[in-house]
Amino acid sequence: MRKAVPAISLSLCLAFAAAPPACAAETLEHYLDIPGLGRVPIPLPPGVTVFGPLRKPPPTPEPPMDRDEPAPRATGLDSLLGRLSEARSEEEAEALAQAIGRIWARSGSATADLLISRAAVAARASQPELALGLLDRIVTLEPGWPQALVARAEMRLTLGDAAGAERDLDAAVRLDPRRFDALGALGALRERAGEPERALDAYRRALALHPRREQWRRAAERLEQEVVGRDI
After folding, report:
1. What are the φ and ψ backbone dihedral angles of 103, each rounded to 5 degrees?
2. Which residue intervals of the chain are DSSP H helices?
3. What distance in Å separates the CA atoms of residue 21 and residue 85, rounded to the nearest whole number?
4. How confident is the model at residue 187 (pLDDT cuts 50, 70, 90)?
């Protein structure tokens, strides 16, 4: 069994930012069936099944979109990221970062969204192993969704698996190089592991996207002095 280690602040607060709270109507009579894990005591709304046949309403036709025009989600994200890089205060920057996090948290899959909300419930209930099992399933279902990798990195770190957390964060950044939260977390992990050059690179990339995060700026300044001192 993996052993938990003391928490390290990696600024992964966006991982479950948009996970909805448990519905007041949920009861413990409903469970989630996870292949390989069995029935787990995470309540589901009555009538909901995740891995069995789903009764879906007919899809609502979407209006035609010009192929040359970006999707509204991408347009909104680009605008928010541009405003974040030019934010005039830390408060403004954090508000924009939270708005960006809510966009990142949308998978486009009802199943993945439901599973990550259940993982958030398990994490809040101090059940990291259960949360990790749910996140493993999400990564399998949606391998191109960086949010699932960032959230799984957080759970792996909670369970003491720093190497696994770094792999997930690296994968998230490869999928989306603008994931400043994953870059900042990589900086912290690499600094803790005694890799100042790689940590500094991650912090610089994070700050290029989110310049107002003072925690990252202070770390970058500290590491710059250390790296320059080694080069002399």
Report:
1. -70, -45
2. 72-85, 90-104, 110-124, 128-141, 146-158, 162-175, 180-192, 196-209, 214-231
3. 31
4. very high
Tokens 């690179």 found at: 201
pLDDT tens per residue, range 56-76: 444 444 444 444 444 556 679
Neighbours of 68 (CB within 10 A): 5
Asked if 148 contacts 142 with a C-beta cutoff of 8 angstroms, the reply is: yes
Query: Which of 232, 192, 171, 185 is closest to 213 using CA atoms?
Result: 185
The answer on 229 and 118 residing in a single domain is no
DSSP 38: E
Domain of 186, in residue numbers: 178-232
Q: Are residues 147 and 125 in the same domain?
A: yes
Residues sharing a CB contact under 8 Å with residue 171, sequence separation 6 or more, in sequence order: 146, 149
Confidence band, pLDDT 50/70/90 cuts, at residue 160:
very high
Tell me the backbone φ, ψ of residue 10, rounded to 5 degrees: -115, 10
Model pTM? 0.72
Strand partners, 32: 40
Q: Distance between CA 74 and CA 71 in Å, rounded?
A: 5
Residue finishing a domain among 176, 192, 224: 176
